């Protein structure tokens, strides 16, 4: 990006794991980027610090009660402070060349959809938005001519393997999975794991929610649904393969039986860099892949009995309608309850399963329908959490 004008960037979820990794990359090439908006949920301190460092035009907190504090932290600087859902939405139609969607959970759906509706180039990390409202998001993106750059490492790998290809020439997509921290554990052993054990991922350093999702393997279930929306090859042609080293980030097999894979160190800055510089390539200081030291790559089939989340996700997307939104909402509530010590690890997927079984709303036609389903599923999951804690 050397001789061109600066690329203007907004980052939703700037204080999180993906958000700060994105800013780390921008630090390496500071002069080629101009930061428009940075957003966070309620962490005014970190948001103010980053906004000042990167000379952002606007800093937005999703939580309106933090506005006064943010204004105070930003007083005397040129960064404008704002807060609340409307301002979060407004930030999505600033004139950014590139928008990072890195809010965690379905809370990221409104600003992500807003950016897509305005035909923006959106780097998508926020998989929960696509799980809940994939059909709607893809339709809006198509209608507005928006560009979606997948950031999730598997989907970024697939996107790279598909460059220059025809999607109807693809025979199979293989999503790789590390298997998480409990890959070799029995259900009995998993019954008593603590949040601390669950967030300690063997390969990746990530936010708490996605770390728990990796431990239950719901993350791979969400990624299956994400892949189904991003790459229309048919659900039955998307497979999951456990690969504990996380070196091969995913693969695409073509009809001539040629298979392309993308490899790299397990560092989210690599897929983020590929989206940030797209369609060019930027220099990074990430660890190069050293296959001699790694020496061996292992593969195994996922165990659907020990990790039922994968089955739940596949059947939710097969059923379609509101089921994926229900799966996601129930999972968000259950993961939060596990992280705060209210329920046991295995109860996460039990709650998701029970909410999916007990709730079959009519086909959602709009964003409002999806939010209504999301809310109802959250209420049902919350009720089950309460039942389990008495
Ligand atoms: P994180 O918890 O580290 O950060 C989340 C960010 O979203 C923070 O900036 C937080 O302030 C903001 N946020 C949280 N709740 C919000 C709300 N209700 N409204 C507005 N903003 C809110 O999460 P993360 O690990 O960076 O993950 C972000 C997204 O990227 C998730 O969807 C995750 O699945 C996906 N992802 C993450 C990784 C990773 O390595 N961390 C890898 C692949 C995909
Ligand atoms: Mg992933």
UniProtKB/TrEMBL annotation:
Residues 9-134 form the 1-deoxy-D-xylulose 5-phosphate reductoisomerase N-terminal domain. Mn(2+) binds at residues 152, 154, 223. Its EC number is 1.1.1.267. InterPro entries: DXP_reductoisomerase, DXP_reductoisomerase_C, DXP_reductoisomerase_N, DXPR_C, DXPR_C_sf, NAD(P)-bd_dom_sf. SUPFAM superfamilies: 1-deoxy-D-xylulose-5-phosphate reductoisomerase, C-terminal domain, Glyceraldehyde-3-phosphate dehydrogenase-like, C-terminal domain, NAD(P)-binding Rossmann-fold domains. 1-deoxy-D-xylulose 5-phosphate binds at residues 127, 153-154, 178, 201, 214, 219-220, 223. It comes from the Bacteria. GO terms for biological process: isopentenyl diphosphate biosynthetic process, methylerythritol 4-phosphate pathway involved in terpenoid biosynthetic process. NADPH binds at residues 15-18, 43, 126, 128, 207. Its cofactor is Mg(2+); Mn(2+). Keywords: Isomerase, Isoprene biosynthesis, Magnesium, Manganese, Metal-binding, NADP, Oxidoreductase. Residues 263-379 form the DXP reductoisomerase C-terminal domain. Pfam families: DXP_redisom_C (PF08436), DXP_reductoisom (PF02670), DXPR_C (PF13288). Pathway: Isoprenoid biosynthesis; isopentenyl diphosphate biosynthesis via DXP pathway; isopentenyl diphosphate from 1-deoxy-D-xylulose 5-phosphate: step 1/6. The keyword Calcium does not apply. Residues 148-231 form the 1-deoxy-D-xylulose 5-phosphate reductoisomerase C-terminal domain. The keyword Isomerase applies. GO terms for molecular function: 1-deoxy-D-xylulose-5-phosphate reductoisomerase activity; isomerase activity; manganese ion binding; NADPH binding. It catalyses: 2-C-methyl-D-erythritol 4-phosphate + NADP(+) = 1-deoxy-D-xylulose 5-phosphate + NADPH + H(+). Belongs to the DXR family. Catalyzes the NADPH-dependent rearrangement and reduction of 1-deoxy-D-xylulose-5-phosphate (DXP) to 2-C-methyl-D-erythritol 4-phosphate (MEP). PANTHER family: 1-DEOXY-D-XYLULOSE 5-PHOSPHATE REDUCTOISOMERASE (PTHR30525), 1-DEOXY-D-XYLULOSE 5-PHOSPHATE REDUCTOISOMERASE, CHLOROPLASTIC (PTHR30525:SF0). This is 1-deoxy-D-xylulose 5-phosphate reductoisomerase. It comes from Parasphingorhabdus halotolerans. The lineage of its organism: Bacteria, Pseudomonadati, Pseudomonadota, Alphaproteobacteria, Sphingomonadales.
